[in-house]
Amino acid sequence: FQIATKEPLNPIKQDVKKGKLRYVANVFPHKGYIWNYGAIPQTWEDPGHKDENTGCCGDNDPIDVCEIGSKVCSRGEVIRVKVLGTLALIDEGETDWKIIAINVEDPEADSYNDINDVRRMKPGYLEATVDWFRRYKVPDGKPENQFAFNGEFKDKAFAVNVIKDTHEHWKALIAKKTDGGEINCTNLTVSDSPFCCGQDCAKATVDAAPPCKAANPIPPEVDKWFYYEKN
Protein backbone atom coordinates (compact mmCIF):
# COMPACT_ATOMS: atom_id res chain seq x y z
CA PHE A 1 0.00 0.00 0.00
CA GLN A 2 1.22 3.48 -0.90
CA ILE A 3 0.18 7.11 -0.54
CA ALA A 4 -1.28 7.91 -3.98
CA THR A 5 0.48 11.27 -4.40
CA LYS A 6 -0.93 11.92 -7.88
CA GLU A 7 -4.57 11.70 -6.77
CA PRO A 8 -6.64 14.40 -4.98
CA LEU A 9 -6.26 14.25 -1.18
CA ASN A 10 -3.60 11.54 -1.60
CA PRO A 11 -5.54 8.41 -0.55
CA ILE A 12 -3.78 5.24 0.58
CA LYS A 13 -4.10 2.61 -2.15
CA GLN A 14 -2.60 -0.72 -3.05
CA ASP A 15 0.06 -0.46 -5.73
CA VAL A 16 -0.74 -1.85 -9.16
CA LYS A 17 2.02 -3.15 -11.40
CA LYS A 18 1.41 -4.38 -14.96
CA GLY A 19 -2.32 -4.51 -14.24
CA LYS A 20 -1.95 -6.63 -11.11
CA LEU A 21 -2.08 -5.76 -7.43
CA ARG A 22 1.47 -5.53 -6.13
CA TYR A 23 2.69 -7.52 -3.13
CA VAL A 24 6.16 -7.45 -1.61
CA ALA A 25 8.31 -10.46 -2.49
CA ASN A 26 9.56 -12.88 0.17
CA VAL A 27 13.33 -12.98 -0.26
CA PHE A 28 14.67 -15.68 2.05
CA PRO A 29 14.89 -15.46 5.02
CA HIS A 30 12.50 -12.48 5.17
CA LYS A 31 8.72 -13.08 5.02
CA GLY A 32 6.97 -9.86 4.09
CA TYR A 33 7.95 -6.71 5.98
CA ILE A 34 10.11 -6.98 9.10
CA TRP A 35 8.83 -3.73 10.68
CA ASN A 36 5.77 -1.50 10.41
CA TYR A 37 6.44 0.37 7.17
CA GLY A 38 5.00 3.86 6.82
CA ALA A 39 5.79 7.49 6.08
CA ILE A 40 6.09 10.84 7.82
CA PRO A 41 3.42 13.31 6.65
CA GLN A 42 4.40 16.79 5.47
CA THR A 43 7.76 15.62 4.12
CA TRP A 44 8.93 15.32 0.51
CA GLU A 45 12.12 13.97 -1.02
CA ASP A 46 12.48 16.53 -3.81
CA PRO A 47 13.57 14.90 -7.11
CA GLY A 48 15.07 18.24 -8.17
CA HIS A 49 17.32 18.50 -5.11
CA LYS A 50 20.63 16.65 -4.98
CA ASP A 51 21.28 15.49 -1.42
CA GLU A 52 24.67 16.68 -0.21
CA ASN A 53 25.23 13.44 1.70
CA THR A 54 24.23 10.91 -0.96
CA GLY A 55 24.95 12.82 -4.17
CA CYS A 56 21.55 11.69 -5.52
CA CYS A 57 18.23 13.48 -5.92
CA GLY A 58 15.12 12.58 -3.93
CA ASP A 59 12.62 9.88 -4.90
CA ASN A 60 9.56 12.19 -5.11
CA ASP A 61 7.81 10.63 -2.09
CA PRO A 62 7.28 11.37 1.59
CA ILE A 63 10.10 10.09 3.79
CA ASP A 64 9.74 6.42 4.78
CA VAL A 65 9.66 5.06 8.34
CA CYS A 66 10.51 1.61 9.66
CA GLU A 67 8.77 1.38 13.04
CA ILE A 68 10.38 -1.38 15.11
CA GLY A 69 7.94 -1.77 18.00
CA SER A 70 6.15 -4.96 19.05
CA LYS A 71 2.66 -3.97 17.83
CA VAL A 72 1.67 -4.82 14.26
CA CYS A 73 -0.11 -1.67 13.09
CA SER A 74 -3.18 -1.54 10.87
CA ARG A 75 -3.01 -0.07 7.37
CA GLY A 76 -3.52 3.68 7.58
CA GLU A 77 -3.05 3.81 11.35
CA VAL A 78 -1.52 7.05 12.62
CA ILE A 79 0.98 6.70 15.47
CA ARG A 80 3.51 8.91 17.23
CA VAL A 81 7.08 7.68 17.06
CA LYS A 82 10.48 8.34 18.58
CA VAL A 83 13.16 8.83 15.90
CA LEU A 84 16.27 6.68 16.44
CA GLY A 85 18.34 6.89 13.26
CA THR A 86 18.30 6.53 9.50
CA LEU A 87 19.58 4.45 6.59
CA ALA A 88 20.40 6.10 3.24
CA LEU A 89 19.06 3.78 0.55
CA ILE A 90 19.94 4.54 -3.06
CA ASP A 91 16.99 3.06 -4.97
CA GLU A 92 17.56 3.04 -8.74
CA GLY A 93 19.75 6.12 -8.44
CA GLU A 94 17.44 8.07 -6.13
CA THR A 95 17.88 9.03 -2.48
CA ASP A 96 15.32 7.14 -0.38
CA TRP A 97 15.88 7.74 3.34
CA LYS A 98 14.59 5.09 5.74
CA ILE A 99 13.93 6.49 9.22
CA ILE A 100 14.26 3.97 12.06
CA ALA A 101 11.76 4.75 14.83
CA ILE A 102 9.72 3.21 17.62
CA ASN A 103 6.13 3.80 18.66
CA VAL A 104 6.12 6.06 21.75
CA GLU A 105 3.49 3.75 23.28
CA ASP A 106 5.61 0.63 22.87
CA PRO A 107 6.34 -1.02 26.26
CA GLU A 108 10.08 -0.78 25.56
CA ALA A 109 10.09 2.73 24.06
CA ASP A 110 11.92 4.21 27.07
CA SER A 111 14.87 1.89 26.39
CA TYR A 112 15.37 3.26 22.87
CA ASN A 113 16.89 6.71 22.43
CA ASP A 114 19.37 6.34 19.57
CA ILE A 115 20.40 3.90 16.86
CA ASN A 116 22.92 2.10 19.09
CA ASP A 117 20.06 1.10 21.39
CA VAL A 118 18.53 -0.83 18.49
CA ARG A 119 21.83 -2.61 17.92
CA ARG A 120 22.03 -3.45 21.64
CA MET A 121 18.40 -4.46 22.21
CA LYS A 122 17.75 -6.23 18.89
CA PRO A 123 20.99 -7.91 17.76
CA GLY A 124 21.04 -8.53 14.00
CA TYR A 125 17.96 -6.41 13.31
CA LEU A 126 19.76 -3.50 11.65
CA GLU A 127 21.81 -5.90 9.54
CA ALA A 128 18.59 -7.66 8.51
CA THR A 129 17.09 -4.27 7.58
CA VAL A 130 20.00 -3.52 5.24
CA ASP A 131 19.72 -7.00 3.73
CA TRP A 132 15.95 -6.58 3.20
CA PHE A 133 16.29 -3.27 1.38
CA ARG A 134 19.28 -4.46 -0.62
CA ARG A 135 17.45 -7.41 -2.14
CA TYR A 136 13.68 -6.86 -2.10
CA LYS A 137 13.45 -5.79 -5.76
CA VAL A 138 15.65 -8.56 -7.14
CA PRO A 139 12.65 -10.90 -7.75
CA ASP A 140 11.30 -8.17 -10.09
CA GLY A 141 14.41 -8.53 -12.24
CA LYS A 142 16.10 -5.42 -10.83
CA PRO A 143 19.66 -5.20 -9.46
CA GLU A 144 20.43 -5.04 -5.77
CA ASN A 145 19.93 -1.61 -4.21
CA GLN A 146 22.91 0.39 -3.03
CA PHE A 147 23.45 2.56 0.06
CA ALA A 148 25.26 5.74 0.98
CA PHE A 149 27.77 5.52 3.85
CA ASN A 150 28.47 1.87 2.93
CA GLY A 151 25.16 0.84 4.47
CA GLU A 152 25.98 2.32 7.87
CA PHE A 153 23.13 3.75 9.92
CA LYS A 154 23.32 7.40 10.97
CA ASP A 155 22.27 8.48 14.46
CA LYS A 156 19.19 10.24 15.78
CA ALA A 157 20.53 13.78 15.36
CA PHE A 158 21.38 13.10 11.72
CA ALA A 159 17.93 11.56 11.11
CA VAL A 160 16.12 14.53 12.67
CA ASN A 161 18.01 16.88 10.35
CA VAL A 162 17.00 14.77 7.35
CA ILE A 163 13.36 15.01 8.45
CA LYS A 164 13.65 18.78 8.90
CA ASP A 165 15.17 19.16 5.42
CA THR A 166 12.43 17.10 3.76
CA HIS A 167 9.80 19.08 5.68
CA GLU A 168 11.23 22.30 4.21
CA HIS A 169 11.01 20.75 0.74
CA TRP A 170 7.38 19.86 1.44
CA LYS A 171 6.62 23.43 2.55
CA ALA A 172 8.02 24.75 -0.74
CA LEU A 173 5.95 22.18 -2.62
CA ILE A 174 2.66 22.96 -0.86
CA ALA A 175 3.27 26.73 -1.26
CA LYS A 176 3.87 26.25 -5.01
CA LYS A 177 7.42 27.56 -4.70
CA THR A 178 8.67 24.27 -6.16
CA ASP A 179 7.22 22.49 -9.17
CA GLY A 180 5.82 19.18 -7.97
CA GLY A 181 5.10 17.85 -11.44
CA GLU A 182 2.26 15.33 -11.25
CA ILE A 183 1.94 15.46 -7.45
CA ASN A 184 -1.55 16.52 -6.39
CA CYS A 185 -1.23 19.03 -3.54
CA THR A 186 -4.95 19.53 -2.87
CA ASN A 187 -5.33 19.76 0.91
CA LEU A 188 -7.71 20.80 3.67
CA THR A 189 -5.40 22.02 6.42
CA VAL A 190 -2.69 24.35 5.03
CA SER A 191 -4.73 27.55 4.87
CA ASP A 192 -2.05 29.66 3.14
CA SER A 193 -1.44 27.07 0.43
CA PRO A 194 -2.78 27.90 -3.05
CA PHE A 195 -3.90 24.25 -3.20
CA CYS A 196 -6.10 24.48 -0.08
CA CYS A 197 -9.74 23.49 -0.69
CA GLY A 198 -12.89 23.64 1.40
CA GLN A 199 -14.89 20.85 3.05
CA ASP A 200 -17.42 20.80 0.19
CA CYS A 201 -14.67 20.28 -2.38
CA ALA A 202 -13.07 17.52 -0.30
CA LYS A 203 -16.43 15.79 0.25
CA ALA A 204 -17.13 15.87 -3.47
CA THR A 205 -13.76 14.27 -4.14
CA VAL A 206 -14.45 11.48 -1.65
CA ASP A 207 -18.02 10.97 -2.88
CA ALA A 208 -16.77 10.64 -6.46
CA ALA A 209 -14.53 7.71 -5.56
CA PRO A 210 -15.74 4.25 -6.58
CA PRO A 211 -17.68 2.44 -3.84
CA CYS A 212 -15.86 -0.15 -1.78
CA LYS A 213 -16.36 -3.71 -2.93
CA ALA A 214 -15.34 -7.08 -1.56
CA ALA A 215 -11.58 -7.52 -1.59
CA ASN A 216 -10.01 -9.74 -4.20
CA PRO A 217 -8.72 -13.04 -2.80
CA ILE A 218 -5.00 -12.97 -2.04
CA PRO A 219 -3.24 -14.90 -4.82
CA PRO A 220 -1.20 -17.95 -3.77
CA GLU A 221 2.01 -16.53 -5.27
CA VAL A 222 2.06 -14.00 -2.41
CA ASP A 223 3.52 -16.79 -0.25
CA LYS A 224 6.18 -17.78 -2.79
CA TRP A 225 9.77 -17.74 -1.54
CA PHE A 226 12.67 -16.37 -3.59
CA TYR A 227 16.22 -17.65 -3.14
CA TYR A 228 19.35 -16.42 -4.81
CA GLU A 229 23.08 -16.14 -4.28
CA LYS A 230 24.06 -12.86 -2.62
CA ASN A 231 26.42 -10.66 -4.61
From TrEMBL:
Keywords: Acetylation, Hydrolase, Magnesium, Metal-binding. The keyword Magnesium applies. Its cofactor is Mg(2+). Belongs to the PPase family. GO terms for cellular component: cytoplasm. It comes from Pachyramphus minor. One of its GO terms (molecular function) is inorganic diphosphate phosphatase activity. It comes from the Eukaryota. It holds the Pfam family Pyrophosphatase. Transmembrane segments: none annotated. Its EC number is 3.6.1.1. PANTHER family: INORGANIC PYROPHOSPHATASE. Homodimer. One of its GO terms (biological process) is phosphate-containing compound metabolic process. The keyword Metal-binding applies. SUPFAM superfamilies: Inorganic pyrophosphatase (SSF50324). This is inorganic diphosphatase.
